[in-house]
Amino acid sequence: MPAAPNRLIAEDSPYLRQHAQNPVDWYPWGPEALERARTEQRPILLSIGYSACHWCHVMERESFEDATIAARMNELFVCVKVDREERPDLDTVYMNAVQLMTGSGGWPLTVVLTPEGEPFFGGTYFPPEDRWGRPGFPRILEAIASAWADKKSEIDRSAASVRAGLERFSNFAPDASALTAATLSTAAETLRGAIDGDEGGFGRAPKFPNATALNFLLRQAWRTGRADLLDPVVLTLRKMARGGIRDHVGGGFHRYSVDEHWLVPHFEKMLYDNAQLLELYADAHRLTNEPEFRRVAECIADYLLREMRHTEGGFFSTQDADTDGEEGLTYVWTLSEMNQVLGDALAPLVTRWFQVDQAGNFAEPGSTVRRSILHVQLELADLAKLFRVSTEEAARQIETGRARLLAVRQQRPQPGRDEKILASWNGLVARALIRAGSGLGRKDWIDAGAAALAFIDRHLRRGDGAALHRTWKDGRARYDGILDDHAQVAVAHLDLFENAGRQASLERALELAEFLLEQFEDPENGGFFLTARDHEPLIDRPRSPFDGSLPSGNAVAVELFLRLHDLKGEARFGRAAQRTLTLFAAALAKQPLGTAGLVTGLEDSIFGRSTVLVTGDIDSKLGSALLRQARSVFRPGLSVVAHPGDDSLLPAGLRGRGVDATGEAAAWVCSNFSCSPAVRSPDELERLLSAR
After folding, report:
1. Taking Cα atoms as reference points, which of 9, 110, 128, 7 lies closest to residue 61?
2. Partner of 692 at 20 to 30 A CA spacing, among 221, 222, 381, 664?
3. Using an 8 Å Cβ cutoff, are 668 and 610 in contact?
4. Phi, psi values for residue 197, rounded to 5°
5. CA 357 to CA 653: how far, in whole Å?
6. Sheet of strand 318-319, all strands in order from the earlier edge strand to the far edge
């Protein structure tokens, strides 16, 4: 008979609810758990993960579902489970602590704390017995319990040392000397040199997309005109698009590749990866005019809108790596399965295109069944030549086959979907849909981005003010929003103002910006903390320039305030951005791969941003053509604004520019608070915007 559910059964998080039937006496993070630890003077065993995490599931099956192990956990500790996506504040603090203690980190994150929340032991996945050079989890539990009983003074010293290290993590010395174009050049060279010249991507296995760093290189390639900066980005995007990390049937990308060839992914799909890659592939298409990159962007958007969207417009968080306990089961195929679905007419060409054969290239550990991860190695023209058909016919067969495979695959058991809706991730996907939709002429994507922002404003606002909740699920919003939530949503609102003329979005962006300055900025040294001033007190208040899977919150804040400075002409916005760059300047110079988001902000700060203001009859044939041309050009730091018809409705920084008594449509390229002469030809506008 199953054990009665523990306290996690009442939580919203799918990850926490996955552990609700464990025999472990789990608590969610909160006053009840912390008070029990203090009252009984027990250490806290804190376990942090997320619903799509494969190794989190493994540790649950091996240890947390084991009655003997669970009994010792319950006897020795107050056991607390945290969803890192709900509580990035806790995850950041304790991940930093584990990295200080061990030199590495990851998920599941396992940390042991004093009753006051101070960490003194940590690690990631532990097996149920000694294995692979790792100590078994039961042995770890007994050793910690023994130390807690007999070596409390050593534990106190260890906790104090970690606490001091955490304080150093957030301390930076302002230094403006590195805020130069030379730092950008060095960063570009460092990133270029880190890319695998054969397979693309940064370093060897495992390989992550790292869209933030690729975006910076793409921008630098445009600014310098250097093919040796552009070519590694194109190589990486092409290899990723053709590798197994991409879902060739359903669209979208998996989290990362375990090998250096992009073939075998960890199969979880994350909203934030696909949002960033949508924008990156759309930008790469605008710069290179590669049709393949446009198709990839379209497939990502199709996937997001089909599988990850709430009926009210918000976007869900993740899809699991596992299906029925087996990683990747939904996505892989045997040759016989594909032949049956495709039929004799399509199977030979389509299976050859996706490199599916009898031998297969993937098997779950312990399984004798060999399946294939779909990937592409041929050029379409070579495939067509091989099968003696036109390239158009080859493309038609591939698309027909893909649609058949998707229809059948949707009838299979599906990976779990974490239906939390997170403010920052939705801001990120909204801006990606708006920017990519504008650049590629897809109004439906812009509308989808607008709907995501409307969802946030409707469900995630804390009362009537600017502040946001972090997460929403099943009608309930919870947890205070962090820096990333407010900054990402604000930037997405700026994009909606610029690309759809939504005046209310400009006001919302300004409201969020003011809240960031009030609640998150360090008024003495500059930069922004992860948590607000009125946030729950933790043992540390992190502040970091470093990107993770997403660009750092400080990088997004810099973009926001640089753009607002241009639009509003208010020096205080420019100062907020500059103070942040100055605070983190040394880190940008030394570690550009880890701070590519802020390095991109430095680029905008040095070279300045530009705005195309289209005035006059913007709905005329010429007005529409000018707007379309401006938005189709790839130019770093470019905003495009359609004149609302009333100069008083323009942001203050653009008022009085582009005055034209004729009322005819015209474009004005503005930077540094001055504008070019009127442009009335799309070709001339393209020439102006292409000039470096």
Report:
1. 128
2. 664
3. no
4. -70, -15
5. 61
6. 269-270, 318-319, 417-418
**Hey, what are 183's tokens?**
């730092």
Q: Tell me what pLDDT residue 412 has.
A: 96
544: Cβ–Cβ under 8 A, 6 or more apart, which residues? 92, 169, 170, 530, 552, 554
CATH class name, domain 7-169: alpha beta
Please give the helix or strand (H or E) that residue 27 lies within, else none. strand 27-28
Q: What is the 3-state secondary structure (H, E, C) of 63-121?
A: HHCCHHHHHHHHHHCEEEEEECCCCHHHHHHHHHHHHHHHCCCCCCEEEEECCCCCEEE
The string over 481-506, giving b where at least 16 C-beta atoms fall within 10 Å of a residue's C-beta and e elsewhere, is: bbbbbbbbbbbbbbbbbbbbbbeebb
> DSSP secondary structure string, 242-304?
HSTTB-TTT-SB-SEESSTTS-SEE--EEHHHHHHHHHHHHHHHHHH--HHHHHHHHHHHHHH
351 vs 345: CA distance, rounded Å: 11
Q: What's the average pLDDT block by block, 10 residues per block, for the chain (692 residues)?
A: 81 95 97 97 97 90 96 97 97 96 93 96 94 89 95 93 90 92 97 97 95 98 97 98 98 96 96 98 97 98 98 97 90 97 97 96 79 97 98 98 98 95 98 98 98 98 93 96 98 96 95 98 95 95 95 98 93 97 96 97 95 91 95 95 80 71 83 86 94 84
Collapse the DSSP code of 195 into the 3-class scheme (helix H, G, I; strand E, B; otherwise coil) and give the result.
strand
Helix (H) / strand (E) containing 335: helix 335-353
Amino acid letter, residue 129: E
263-309 confidence digits (pLDDT tens): 999 999 999 999 999 999 999 999 999 999 999 999 999 999 999 99
pLDDT value at residue 261: 97
Between CA 425 and CA 427, with CA 426 as vertex, the angle to 5 degrees is: 90
Evaluate if pTM is beyond 0.85.
yes
Domain at 181-194+203-324+418-607: CATH architecture: Alpha/alpha barrel (1.50)
DSSP label at 532? -
Domain boundaries, the chain: 7-169, 181-194+203-324+418-607, 331-412, 610-690
Q: Where are the alpha helices (H) located in 441-584, listed in sequence order?
A: 443-459, 483-500, 503-519, 553-568, 571-583
Amino acid identity of 120?
F
